[in-house]
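Colleagues,

For the teaching module next term, I've prepared a clean inverse folding example: a structure given as tokens, and then the sequence designed for it. I'd like students to try predicting residues themselves before seeing the answer, so please don't circulate the second half yet.
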């Protein structure tokens, strides 16, 4: 069942969210009650925005998907997954005055409307001064949301079968893979864990079709914590039972959450304060693959690129098109801050459960200026 909240009002749904249960239980349900406190706080935010001449837009949604998995051998599994998200867009009358924020949530109890509105107001103030910059390589601060978009692309490209066939960035000549090779700094860990208390997700394989990333013949297979990158080295690729046998690898199915952590403690604000001159991004958009052999991606910045000088944001910068590989970025990163729960922007419709750090890249490639606002 699904409930939605947009600028036009509340959607419809059933009763409150329920979890757990047995195979014979009906589907868990959601309803508009999940938005009660959020909608009340949102009304106050809309009121203050109107009073200050700002405009707020956005969309919130909540759904609960119950999956039953049964086989002729007697397997009976059931899982109810609550998934919520809210995306904000704030605008001012200043040219280029547009900022975005997104958050994923299980039940909206952790959505702080007042804090989000204050952050949006602060970023709109940064847009009062406009700075035009040319394309080039810049020291760049990527917020957790932008890092999530890049790491999801990396994850979706990590099929063990494809790598063994020599078709991806994780391939070596002769049918070998890059397992064991350092691709990031020491201490860096990229992992998935269905039992993560903040990012809990389906604990068994549910494949509706087969591909290099999943197999219907693995349905019901229990999922556990898996390190994809451990201490900076590639530790595992996504393996079905069939591809694991073919490549003599452990069975490591895909899991619907992703965490990047390098043990950093700095917040994005602290990283801004330690930046002499660089760019601060808000989000990435329209990301597309250019070259799978190096996982070169292209895309656009959106809703806020800012110039940081001597530890302070001094103005808003024009948008850019970028060309970068997330694998290459891990090897070039100069700093990874504290990992926090976040939501990707480009891939939010397909993958919402992520925890990522802000990232400092010394030479992020802004390949051309974008006319997009």
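(Answer key — instructors only)
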């Amino acid at each position: 069942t699904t409930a939605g909240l947009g600028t036009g009002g509340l959607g419809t749904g059933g009763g409150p969210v329920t979890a757990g249960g047995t195979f014979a239980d009906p589907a868990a349900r959601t309803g508009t009650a999940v938005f009660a406190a959020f909608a009340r706080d949102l009304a106050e935010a809309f009121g203050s925005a109107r009073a200050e001449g700002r405009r707020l837009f956005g969309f919130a949604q909540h759904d609960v998907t119950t999956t039953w998995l049964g086989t002729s051998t007697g397997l009976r599994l059931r899982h109810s997954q609550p998934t919520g998200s809210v995306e904000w867009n704030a605008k001012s009358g200043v040219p280029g005055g547009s900022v975005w924020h997104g958050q994923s949530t299980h039940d909206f109890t952790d959505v702080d409307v007042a804090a989000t509105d204050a952050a949006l107001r602060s970023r709109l103030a940064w847009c009062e001064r406009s700075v035009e910059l040319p394309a080039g390589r810049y020291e760049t601060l990527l917020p957790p949301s932008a890092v999530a978009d890049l790491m999801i692309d990396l994850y979706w490209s990590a099929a063990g079968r494809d790598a063994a066939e020599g078709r991806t960035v994780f391939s070596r000549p002769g049918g070998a893979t890059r397992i064991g090779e350092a691709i990031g700094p020491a201490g860096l860990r990229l992992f998935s864990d269905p039992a993560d208390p903040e990012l809990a997700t389906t604990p068994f394989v549910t494949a509706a079709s087969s591909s290099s990333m999943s197999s219907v013949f693995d349905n019901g297979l229990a999922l556990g914590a898996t390190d994809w990158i451990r201490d900076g080295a590639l530790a595992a690729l996504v393996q079905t039972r069939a591809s694991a046998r073919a490549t003599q690898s452990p069975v490591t199915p895909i899991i619907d959450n992703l965490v990047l952590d390098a043990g950093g403690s700095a917040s994005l604000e602290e990283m801004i304060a330690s930046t002499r001159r660089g760019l601060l991004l808000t989000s990435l958009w329209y990301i597309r693959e250019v070259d799978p052999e190096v996982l070169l991606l292209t895309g656009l910045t959106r809703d806020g690129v800012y110039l940081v000088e001597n530890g302070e944001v001094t103005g808003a910068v024009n948008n850019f098109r970028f060309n970068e590989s997330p694998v290459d970025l891990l090897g070039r990163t100069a700093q990874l801050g504290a990992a926090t729960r976040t939501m990707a922007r480009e891939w939010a419709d397909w993958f919402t459960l992520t925890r990522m750090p802000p990232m400092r890249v010394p030479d992020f490639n802004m390949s051309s200026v974008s006319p997009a606002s």
